[in-house]
């Protein structure tokens, strides 16, 4: 019996002679062969399996997070301190700008590197046990380099006359220096104390008992930094950050009592986390966690943490 002019045997031979086509896959209305799918996703596979999950890449990503985070702090924060463009800044406006710039950086780079953007915070994280010695040095380099580049970018895009005027009328735009009425000891004490408040706040956030209370963290830090800046700004500039102090000093060649900001804040970054770690910090046990919270529906919440090994997920 024949079908369409071919016998069964001829039809079978004809099918065997046809080239074998790869199986087709269809998703979302699009059909593709196996070969084309594999070729199209080969880069993603290599990136995910051989590049992005390596230790070296992780270190690089955290370096870049701290570099760009600190650069953003200096560029946007110091732009808010620039008297120009027909705008006269005040102590209150400068404090608010720096506070909310910190919020922007935490929102952007908090999950990348923890958004320390401050060598003192990195020192505290190391003492607290959340950062290794090697990564602490990596963070230092990224933060100082980022601060210098961020402020340099601001000087490149803003009129030079604004920076010249700030040097004539004061120490320089965004340069931190003690008020003339303060003694050296008083200025050192103020920087130590206000930095200590900042570090204790960080330690409180890192406390295991606070792992479930991380909502609105960036906004809380914004208001914290703004409050400290407004309070201590007229006295010492409320630096709390050697990288934040160094960059404007370098670009403006203005170094009045700069050593205060390289002694007071780092000293607070050493003393305060030791005190908090051994006096206030408590570990959370499974029993206490169960007793403290009644059973509820399971949800997935990503919690930003400073430990290098992995992100904490509840």
How would you describe this structure to a colleague?
- This protein is mainly alpha-helical.
- The protein is 63% helix and 5% strand.
- It has helices at 8-17, 34-51, 55-79, 91-113, 119-128, 133-157, 160-169, 184-206, 217-236, 242-252, 264-280, 286-292; strands at 2-3, 6-7, 24-27, 30-33, 302-303, 312-313.
- The strands form 3 sheets. Strands 1-2 form a two-stranded antiparallel sheet. A two-stranded antiparallel sheet has the order 3-4. Strands 5-6 form a two-stranded antiparallel sheet.
- The longest helix has 25 residues, at 55-79.
- It starts with a strand and ends with a strand.
- 35% of the residues are buried.
- The model is unreliable at 1-8, 24-38 and 294-314 (pLDDT under 50).
Fraction of residues in β-strands: 5-15%
Oligomeric state, counting identical vs distinct chains? single chain
The total strand number stands at 6
Helix segment tally: 12
Q: Helices and strands: which structural class?
A: mainly alpha
Order of neighbouring strands in the sheet with most strands: 1-2
The SSE string, one letter per element, is EEHEEHHHHHHHHHHHEE
Through-space gap between termini:
70 Å
Radius of gyration: 28 Å
The parts where pLDDT drops under 50 for at least 5 residues are: 1-8, 24-38, 294-314
Could you tell me the mean pLDDT?
83
The helix fraction, in percent, is: 55-70%
Q: Mind summarizing the main beta sheet?
A: 2 strands, antiparallel
Q: Could you say which overall geometry the principal axes of the C-alpha atoms support?
A: globular
